[in-house]
Structure formats: structure tokens, C-alpha cells
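Exercise 7.
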Amino acid sequence: MTDTKVSRMPDPTAIVPELNDISAALFRATGNRSVPRTTLGLVHLRAGQIVGNTYLTVLNTATLRKAGESEERITSVSSWMDSPFFTDAERAALALLEATLQPAPHGEERVSDALYAEVARHYDEKALTTLTIAIGQINFFIALAVIGKPRPVTSLADQQWD
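Solution. The predicted structure, written as C-alpha cells, is:
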């Protein structure tokens, strides 16, 4: 008999129900429309790619497809730096995410003043704060995804945890 269990842990919200409140608060905070939903989806997809997590890449790819994003944009998120399919604002958001998630060169800040200025050129104070929260949001979910290894799903309504 083959073990069909995928996730390493049971549903964390069943164990720590307060997680539902945290998750809902993060989605409310990032859903204020100051940053386009598509941009947030691209950032979350790229985060899943960087950490090499199937759950996050499948979920965020599906979310972008449902939002009507083109296959060219979705598939070129991993190579966004040389892709012609992204706006300057989206590139700034993706650069900010990468600077946050990846180690900085020795002796340098992860988020340089120059990068911060570039992002601030595209996003007002509320949007930049929202984008920062969205990056924190995906980092929060990265821990659950890489440690708990939920079942890859195309919707948050689907069964993720064994």
C-alpha cells in the first residue's frame, strides 16, 4: 500500500486556531488596493521560486492564472530581470523581494538606499508599506510551507493538510 500522505504536519490552524486571525489580518492589510493584486501575486510567486517550494509556486501560479495573467508573464517571473513582460514598478517590487530573501554581498545591506529609492519612486508611502507587509506575509507563509509541506493546491479552499 502506498502512503498518500503529502504534508508533514496536520493543519496548523487546527492546532493553533489563532493562526486564522493572523492570516486574515495579513490578507486585510495587503488587500487595501494600494498595490495591484497582480504585483502582490508576482512577488509571492517569486518568493516560492526562490525558496524552491512547490506548494507556494503552484498556488501562486494558479492565482495569477485565475486573475487573467498571461503565461508569458507567469513563466518569466523566475527570469524577470531580463523579461520584457514587467513594468518598472513590478520590477522594483520583485527586486525588493529578492533583496529581502537573499543574502547580501559581504558587507552590504540587503536593501540598499538606492533600491529603496527606486521602489519609493514607484510606490507612495501606503503602497510601499503594503508591499513591505506583503513581503513579510509571504515570509510568514514560507515557514509553514517549507516546514509543514502542505499538499500543492490551486486554491486556498482546497485540502492542503493531511
